[in-house]
Amino acid sequence: MIIQLNSAVHDDLREALQHYAETAGSQIALDFYEEFQGSADSAASSPLSYRVYLEDPTEIRRVNFRRFPYHFLFRQIDQRTIRILVVRHDHRHPSYGLDRW
To answer: Tens of pLDDT along 31-69?
Structure first.
């Protein structure tokens, strides 16, 4: 399965990685990125196994990170592609990134 990233996801990741690098060290930042990659691969492997977060305009699904208080939202574009729309902290305003469809 192909994983596409909304262009703003790069900024989301850069912000989180910078935060962890500055506050907890580069290894924790690397751990965060590896968890993101593993979660994205898992979503691509079985996208329908994740709960629907929002049904309008299309089914948007949510993937929670295990170790970090973050999650991402994605949608399945076709049988071979998912698009990650936003990576956000669990305490961020619920509407953050919802305009990226």
So the answer is: 999 999 999 999 999 999 999 998 877 899 999 999 999
Strands of the 2-5 sheet, one edge to the other: 2-5, 81-89, 70-78, 60-64, 52-54
Helix (H, G, I), strand (E, B) or coil at 14: helix
Cα distance between residue 3 and residue 16, in whole Å:
20
Pick the CATH number of 2-89 from 1.10.357.10, 3.40.50.11810, 3.20.20.80, 3.30.2310.20: 3.30.2310.20
Spatial separation of the C-alpha atoms in residues 44 and 101, rounded to whole Å: 18
Does the predicted TM-score (pTM) go above 0.90? yes
Note whether 64 and 51 are within 8 A (CB): no
